[in-house]
Design goal:
- By secondary structure, this protein is an alpha+beta fold.
- Helix 7 packs antiparallel against helix 8.
- It contains eight helices and four strands; from the N terminus they run H-E-H-H-E-E-E-H-H-H-H-H.
Length: 193
Amino acid sequence: MNNSNVSISFEHLIKSSNERWTLSNTGKTQRIIVQTGQCSLAVGATQVTEILKDLVSNDSKITTAGCDGTCFNAPQAIVVDSSGRKHRLTNIAPEDVSTISKFLNKIDSSSQYAFNDGQRRLTMDQCGELDSTDIDDYINNGGYKGLAKALMIPPASVIAEAKSSGLRGRGGAYFPAALKWERTRSFKDNSCQ
Protein backbone atom coordinates (compact mmCIF):
# COMPACT_ATOMS: atom_id res chain seq x y z
CA MET A 1 0.00 0.00 0.00
CA ASN A 2 1.54 3.31 -1.02
CA ASN A 3 1.42 6.59 0.92
CA SER A 4 -1.45 7.95 -1.15
CA ASN A 5 -3.58 4.86 -0.55
CA VAL A 6 -2.86 4.95 3.19
CA SER A 7 -3.79 8.62 3.34
CA ILE A 8 -7.02 8.10 1.37
CA SER A 9 -7.97 5.05 3.45
CA PHE A 10 -7.31 6.91 6.69
CA GLU A 11 -9.31 9.95 5.56
CA HIS A 12 -12.19 7.62 4.63
CA LEU A 13 -11.97 5.91 8.03
CA ILE A 14 -12.12 9.27 9.83
CA LYS A 15 -15.03 10.51 7.70
CA SER A 16 -17.16 7.38 8.15
CA SER A 17 -16.33 7.23 11.84
CA ASN A 18 -17.26 10.88 12.29
CA GLU A 19 -20.60 10.32 10.54
CA ARG A 20 -21.46 7.37 12.82
CA TRP A 21 -20.31 9.22 15.95
CA THR A 22 -22.30 12.35 15.02
CA LEU A 23 -25.41 10.27 14.34
CA SER A 24 -25.18 8.51 17.70
CA ASN A 25 -24.68 11.82 19.54
CA THR A 26 -27.27 13.95 17.73
CA GLY A 27 -29.57 15.70 20.18
CA LYS A 28 -27.35 15.05 23.17
CA THR A 29 -26.63 18.19 25.20
CA GLN A 30 -24.32 16.52 27.67
CA ARG A 31 -22.23 13.43 28.01
CA ILE A 32 -21.72 11.68 31.33
CA ILE A 33 -18.69 9.40 31.43
CA VAL A 34 -18.50 6.99 34.35
CA GLN A 35 -15.07 5.48 34.92
CA THR A 36 -15.29 1.73 35.44
CA GLY A 37 -11.86 0.36 36.25
CA GLN A 38 -11.30 -2.37 38.82
CA CYS A 39 -10.91 0.14 41.63
CA SER A 40 -14.16 1.95 40.83
CA LEU A 41 -16.11 -1.26 40.25
CA ALA A 42 -15.13 -2.35 43.76
CA VAL A 43 -16.67 0.80 45.26
CA GLY A 44 -19.93 1.04 43.33
CA ALA A 45 -19.33 2.34 39.78
CA THR A 46 -21.65 -0.28 38.31
CA GLN A 47 -24.50 0.81 40.56
CA VAL A 48 -23.82 4.50 39.79
CA THR A 49 -23.90 3.77 36.05
CA GLU A 50 -27.14 1.78 36.24
CA ILE A 51 -28.89 4.44 38.34
CA LEU A 52 -27.78 7.14 35.90
CA LYS A 53 -29.04 5.15 32.91
CA ASP A 54 -32.45 4.95 34.55
CA LEU A 55 -32.58 8.62 35.53
CA VAL A 56 -31.04 10.73 32.78
CA SER A 57 -33.11 12.33 30.10
CA ASN A 58 -32.80 11.53 26.41
CA ASP A 59 -30.62 14.59 25.84
CA SER A 60 -27.80 13.04 27.89
CA LYS A 61 -25.52 10.23 26.83
CA ILE A 62 -24.10 7.87 29.43
CA THR A 63 -20.85 6.15 28.52
CA THR A 64 -18.29 4.18 30.45
CA ALA A 65 -14.53 4.49 30.25
CA GLY A 66 -11.57 2.94 31.97
CA CYS A 67 -9.97 4.36 35.08
CA ASP A 68 -7.71 7.39 34.72
CA GLY A 69 -5.40 6.18 37.49
CA THR A 70 -6.81 8.25 40.34
CA CYS A 71 -8.31 5.31 42.20
CA PHE A 72 -8.65 7.33 45.39
CA ASN A 73 -11.42 9.34 43.65
CA ALA A 74 -13.47 6.32 42.61
CA PRO A 75 -16.16 6.08 41.57
CA GLN A 76 -15.90 9.16 39.45
CA ALA A 77 -17.63 10.65 36.45
CA ILE A 78 -16.91 13.39 33.99
CA VAL A 79 -19.81 15.49 32.76
CA VAL A 80 -19.16 17.19 29.43
CA ASP A 81 -21.67 19.95 28.79
CA SER A 82 -22.82 21.27 25.40
CA SER A 83 -19.98 23.83 25.31
CA GLY A 84 -17.39 21.08 25.78
CA ARG A 85 -16.51 22.06 29.35
CA LYS A 86 -15.66 19.14 31.58
CA HIS A 87 -16.80 18.82 35.15
CA ARG A 88 -15.40 16.04 37.32
CA LEU A 89 -17.40 14.37 40.08
CA THR A 90 -15.41 12.25 42.51
CA ASN A 91 -16.20 9.69 45.20
CA ILE A 92 -19.78 9.33 43.96
CA ALA A 93 -22.03 7.17 46.11
CA PRO A 94 -25.17 5.57 44.65
CA GLU A 95 -27.27 7.80 46.92
CA ASP A 96 -25.64 10.84 45.25
CA VAL A 97 -27.46 9.97 42.03
CA SER A 98 -30.85 9.10 43.45
CA THR A 99 -32.14 11.96 41.36
CA ILE A 100 -30.45 13.43 38.32
CA SER A 101 -30.79 16.93 39.73
CA LYS A 102 -28.95 15.89 42.89
CA PHE A 103 -26.20 14.45 40.73
CA LEU A 104 -25.88 17.49 38.49
CA ASN A 105 -26.09 19.91 41.44
CA LYS A 106 -22.94 18.32 42.84
CA ILE A 107 -20.99 19.86 39.94
CA ASP A 108 -18.90 22.86 40.86
CA SER A 109 -17.76 24.42 37.59
CA SER A 110 -15.46 26.85 39.38
CA SER A 111 -13.36 24.16 41.03
CA GLN A 112 -10.29 22.77 39.37
CA TYR A 113 -9.20 19.18 39.43
CA ALA A 114 -5.91 19.82 41.22
CA PHE A 115 -4.46 16.32 40.96
CA ASN A 116 -3.79 16.73 37.22
CA ASP A 117 -2.48 20.30 37.47
CA GLY A 118 1.06 20.45 36.15
CA GLN A 119 0.82 17.06 34.45
CA ARG A 120 1.09 16.64 30.72
CA ARG A 121 -0.15 13.22 29.73
CA LEU A 122 0.88 12.00 26.33
CA THR A 123 0.01 8.36 25.78
CA MET A 124 -2.62 8.41 28.52
CA ASP A 125 -4.06 11.80 27.54
CA GLN A 126 -7.73 10.80 27.30
CA CYS A 127 -7.60 7.80 29.57
CA GLY A 128 -10.78 7.69 31.60
CA GLU A 129 -12.68 9.81 29.08
CA LEU A 130 -13.04 7.73 25.91
CA ASP A 131 -15.77 5.12 25.63
CA SER A 132 -13.84 1.87 25.64
CA THR A 133 -16.63 0.11 23.72
CA ASP A 134 -16.90 2.66 20.90
CA ILE A 135 -14.13 2.68 18.28
CA ASP A 136 -15.61 5.83 16.75
CA ASP A 137 -15.05 7.69 20.02
CA TYR A 138 -11.38 6.72 19.80
CA ILE A 139 -10.99 7.60 16.11
CA ASN A 140 -12.76 10.97 16.51
CA ASN A 141 -10.37 11.88 19.29
CA GLY A 142 -7.20 11.28 17.29
CA GLY A 143 -6.92 7.50 17.47
CA TYR A 144 -4.80 5.78 14.82
CA LYS A 145 -3.15 9.02 13.61
CA GLY A 146 0.24 7.74 14.75
CA LEU A 147 -0.31 4.43 12.95
CA ALA A 148 -1.32 6.23 9.74
CA LYS A 149 1.79 8.40 9.95
CA ALA A 150 4.01 5.35 10.54
CA LEU A 151 2.50 3.59 7.51
CA MET A 152 3.24 6.60 5.28
CA ILE A 153 6.97 6.86 6.02
CA PRO A 154 9.76 4.36 5.39
CA PRO A 155 10.41 1.78 8.13
CA ALA A 156 13.88 3.23 8.75
CA SER A 157 12.26 6.60 9.51
CA VAL A 158 9.88 4.97 12.00
CA ILE A 159 12.86 3.38 13.74
CA ALA A 160 14.77 6.69 13.73
CA GLU A 161 11.80 8.51 15.27
CA ALA A 162 11.40 5.83 17.95
CA LYS A 163 15.13 6.03 18.66
CA SER A 164 15.14 9.82 19.03
CA SER A 165 12.06 9.66 21.29
CA GLY A 166 13.72 7.27 23.71
CA LEU A 167 10.75 4.86 23.56
CA ARG A 168 11.42 1.85 25.76
CA GLY A 169 9.75 -1.50 26.26
CA ARG A 170 7.58 -2.27 29.27
CA GLY A 171 8.86 -5.77 29.96
CA GLY A 172 10.84 -4.81 33.04
CA ALA A 173 14.23 -4.19 31.44
CA TYR A 174 12.96 -1.12 29.55
CA PHE A 175 15.07 -2.05 26.55
CA PRO A 176 15.03 0.63 23.81
CA ALA A 177 12.29 -0.38 21.35
CA ALA A 178 14.10 1.11 18.35
CA LEU A 179 17.09 -1.16 18.93
CA LYS A 180 14.81 -4.21 18.87
CA TRP A 181 13.18 -3.03 15.65
CA GLU A 182 16.51 -2.13 14.07
CA ARG A 183 17.96 -5.55 14.88
CA THR A 184 14.87 -7.33 13.53
CA ARG A 185 15.06 -5.38 10.24
CA SER A 186 18.72 -6.30 9.85
CA PHE A 187 17.87 -9.95 9.20
CA LYS A 188 17.64 -10.64 5.49
CA ASP A 189 15.70 -13.90 5.67
CA ASN A 190 13.51 -14.85 8.59
CA SER A 191 12.25 -18.15 7.19
CA CYS A 192 12.83 -21.36 9.08
CA GLN A 193 14.24 -24.26 7.14
